[in-house]
Each structure stands twice: as structure tokens, then as C-alpha cells.
Design a protein that fits this description.
Helices cover 45% and strands 31% of the residues. By secondary structure, the chain is of the alpha+beta class. It is globular.
Length: 64
Amino acid sequence: MKVRVVLKYRHCDGNLCIKVTDDVACLLYRTDQAQDVKKIEKFHSQLMRLMVAKESRSAAMETD
């Protein structure tokens, strides 16, 4: 239930790095492709919307 997401973008060389970890496993993805950068931006914005949505909080509490 606890996950950290870190996005790093270097404008000078156009690299984007996304790191997702739960302190047990760590996933890291790096790209310099514009198409991948746009997909990751869309994924990250959807993730942030879900994390702040009231519906997701109430659903998570019901499953616990």
C-alpha cells in the first residue's frame, strides 16, 4: 500500500527517469524518446489524480 514515485527530467539532454519503489523492490525506467516521455507524463498525472481522489481513499479503506 506504500509506494514512492520519483520523476527526474534533464532538459539539457532530454532524459527522463522514473523510479518506483516500495522499499522491497525498485523499478527504474530511463528514456530519451519523446513518445515515451509523453506516455510517462500521462501515466504520472493519472496516478496523482487517483491518489488524491476521494473515491480511491474510501475504496482502499474498505479493502483493509
